[in-house]
Amino acid sequence: MNKKAQLNWVRLPLENLENCRELGGYETGNGSQTKWHTFLRADNMANINEEEIEFLRDYGIKTVIDLRGDDETSIHRNPLSNEDFCTYHNIPLAVQPVSELNADVVETMGDFYVSVLEESKTIKEVFDVIAESDGGLVFHCMAGKDRTGLIAMLLLGLVGVSKKDIVSNYEVTYTNLESFQNIKGLPTRIPESYLYSSRDYILMAYNHIMDHYHSIESYLLEKDISQENIDKIKDKFIL
């Protein structure tokens, strides 16, 4: 057993992942705290090595949700998809291939986030997998910013983490990624402004949910996620 893997990490010590972070340690709406070793958010995992795979196993990861589309996974395969210690799910979250994003498709990344929240057909599948998962779970896309950021926002908001903490969690992404242009697999045609984790982007998504659904839980119910599965996720995530 890797002793480091038994510790609680805000950002996991994995050299080949720039943006692999815990969702544990946040204050929840009932005055408790989110559990550690339960949910990790990450970027492109295609380059992790055997030592890092072993670390994730020892950290307790048993489920992987890959939010990328076929255009990304066919080129940058997640090596955890072949591991026996975890179950791999490829559930594309974006409405259109990320490689096709440009200013003609969405004006800002905030608009992209709202379109995913309203038009994605796979949010229910993602949350049903989360509800039925055992042990630790990691979800990821390419940069670990947009699709991953939305799922992180929904998970944190579901258990009553404050808007301030949700926004702060999102903004850390750009600090962790020294240069988005150097991330392997990112489409070269994406406008530079899309690559920043501006608080305005995630606030647009968060405020859209609050304005139209009044809570994260109501939004998830509207997406046909059962109350039973919502309660399972809460039980998993809150100390």
From TrEMBL:
Pfam families: Y_phosphatase3 (PF13350). PROSITE patterns: TYR_PHOSPHATASE_1, TYR_PHOSPHATASE_2. Its EC number is 3.1.3.48. It comes from the Bacteria. Keywords: Hydrolase. One of its GO terms (molecular function) is protein tyrosine phosphatase activity. It is an enzyme of class 3 (hydrolase). Residues 114-167 form the Tyrosine specific protein phosphatases domain. Belongs to the protein-tyrosine phosphatase family. PANTHER family: TYROSINE SPECIFIC PROTEIN PHOSPHATASES DOMAIN-CONTAINING PROTEIN, TYROSINE-PROTEIN PHOSPHATASE. This is Tyrosine-protein phosphatase. The lineage of its organism: Bacteria, Bacillati, Bacillota, Bacilli, Bacillales.
